[in-house]
C-alpha cells in the first residue's frame, strides 16, 4: 500500500552536527502522528527539511509517491503541506485577516490588472475569504473572530498561536505540521486548543497531522502513533503506550531507567 | 459614519491645501519657519491625541475617489497663484518628486526592496524623454516610454540585488546610481557633463512651455506642468492605493515582514520583489520624464546620489508605506531648502537635523501608515 507521506533515510547536517540521521517514517492519510524527543533531537529540523527550509544531505521525501526532496518551500505548500512554527512567525504589523489569508495563497487571484482595475471582482473575493477566515477563527474563539481587522501585535500569545494554526488550516492542507502549538499554554488551554483543531479536522477527515509536543497527556489523547527521535535518529515508533513502555525511550526521553 | 469620513477627508484636504499655499507663498523666512513649526506642532498634537492614527485610518479606509481631493487642492493653489513662476515651479517639483516617491513607496514601503538609485531611474526617464523628444512623438507616449525604459533597465539591476542580502543589496543600488552618473558624464551622445536639451511637452500642437493666455486670463507656463504632474500623480496614487488594498499588497507586506514565513505559505518572494521593483521604477521613470520636459534641459548633476537620498528621505520622513504622507513630506523636503536660501549652506544642516529629530522621536514617520482593513470591501 502507499502512504500519503514517507521519509526515506533522510539526513540533515549542520557543519559537524548530524541533526537528522537516516530518518525514515511513513504517514497514512487521515492519521495523527506524534513526534517526540528531547531538546535538540531534530524534530524541528525534520519539519524544516520537509517544507524545503533546509537542505537534506541524503535520503528522500515522498508525498504521494512523488519525490519532493529539495523543492522550494512554496512548491511544497502547493502540494498541500502547511505548518506552524515553534517560534511563531507572524507579521506583527498586519491585521489578523492579512496574516491568515496568506494561507490561501493558491486560491487568491494574483493577476495585476484584475487586482488594480476590477475592484468589483476583488471585493467579492475579499468577502468570500473574509467569511471563510471569520468562520475558521470563530471555531477557535468568537472573540478572535470579532477582532479580524485588529493588528496582530495587539493579540496575546495564546491568540497568536491560534492565528498560526488558522493560517495553516485555511489552506486545507493534506498534511499539517504542528511544531509545539501549545507552547506557553496551561494544560486546560492546551486541551481546548487541541479540541478546536480536531473540530476543524472533522470537516476534512483525510487531512493528516504530524504534531511535535512535550505535553505527554496531549500525545496520549490525540496521537494514533508516536515516533521518538534522539540525536536525529528514530529510536521508537508505535502506539503511545507501546512507545512509552520502551526502555530505550524511558532512558532517552523520560530520563528514567 | 460615511458622511463623517467624507467630512474628515475634506477637512484634512482643506487644512493641507491652506498650509501648502501659505508655505509656498511665504517670502520671509521667519514666516516659513513659523509655518513649519506650526506644522510640527500640529503633527505632535495629532500624535499625542492619537488623532493622527485615526485620520490615517479614515483616509486608508475611504473610497479611492477621496484621492481626487489632491487634484482639487492642487488646482485651487495652482489657479490662485497662477502668475507666480517660482511658486508654481516649486509646486510642480513637489508633485514630480512626490510621483517618484509613489514608486519608491511601492518598492521600499510595500515590498521592502531598498533602492538607493531612485535618482538614476528618474534620470533614465529624463534622458529617454530627451532622446525621444526629437522625433515628434506625442508627449504622453514619451512619458510612458520614460517609465518603460526605467523599468526595463531596473530588470537588469534586480538580478544582482536578489542574489545578495540586506546591506549588500543596498550597496548594489548605490553602486548603480554612481555608475549611472559616471556613464552620463563620459557619454558624448548623451551630452556628457553639459547635458541635453529636452523638448517640452505639448498638447494638440501647443507647447506646454508657453504661458497660458485665455482672454484676459494669463498664467505662467509652469501652471501647465502643475496640471500635468497633478494628473499623472493622481492616477498613479489611485493605482498604488488599489495595489496596496489587493492580494498583491498583502503579498508585498508578507514578503517584507517575513520572507521565509511567506515562502512556506506559497508566496513567490523573488517574483514579488521583482514586481515591486519594476512597477516602482516605472513610476519613477514617468516622474523623471515629466521633470525633464519641464526643465527643458537635463544634466548628470540633476541625478546624483544625494537626489536619491532626498527621495528616500521623503518617504521615510512622511511615514513609510503611507501614500498620503508623501506630499506633506515632499513639501517639507523640496520647498523648505528653497525658502531658506538666505541661511545658505546651513539649510543642509537644518535638513539633516530635521531628519535626525524625526527618526529619533517619530521612528515611523510624521504620518505613519495605517493598518490595512478590508472593512469597506467586505461591506460592499
Ligand atoms: N540552522 C541551524 N544551523 C545550525 N544548527 C542548527 C540549525 N537548526 C538546528 N540546529 C541544531 O540542530 C539540532 C536539532 O535542532 P532542532 O531544532 O531540530 O531540535 P528540536 O528537536 O526541535 O528541539 P526543541 O525541542 O528544543 O525544539 C540542535 O542541536 C540545533 O542546535
Ligand atoms: Mg523544535
Automatic annotation (TrEMBL), chain A:
The biological processes this protein is annotated with in GO are: D-alanine transmembrane transport; L-alanine transport; L-isoleucine import across plasma membrane; L-valine import across plasma membrane
Keyword presence, Nucleotide-binding: yes
Record-annotated ABC transporter domain positions: 5-256
SMART domains given in the database record: AAA
For this protein, the record's Pfam families field holds: ABC_tran, BCA_ABC_TP_C
Which GO MF terms does the UniProt record name? Answer: ATP binding; ATP hydrolysis activity; L-isoleucine transmembrane transporter activity; L-phenylalanine transmembrane transporter activity; L-valine transmembrane transporter activity
Tell me the keywords, alphabetical order.
Answer: ATP-binding, Nucleotide-binding, Transport
Q: Which SUPFAM superfamilies match?
A: P-loop containing nucleoside triphosphate hydrolases
What is the designated name of this protein?
ABC-type branched-subunit amino acid transport system ATPase component
Automatic annotation (TrEMBL), chain B:
Show the InterPro entries listed in the entry: ABC_transp_permease, LivM-like
Q: How does it sit in the membrane?
A: Multi-pass membrane protein
Q: Which GO terms describe its cellular component?
A: plasma membrane
Transmembrane portions of the chain: 7-26, 32-51, 63-81, 87-106, 113-133, 139-159, 166-184, 222-240, 274-298, 310-334, 346-363
Localization (cell): Cell membrane
Q: Name one GO molecular function term.
A: branched-chain amino acid transmembrane transporter activity
> Which Pfam families does the record cross-reference, listed alphabetically?
BPD_transp_2
Q: Which UniProt keywords apply?
A: Cell membrane, Membrane, Transmembrane, Transmembrane helix
UniProt-recorded name of the protein:
ABC-type branched-subunit amino acid transport system permease subunit
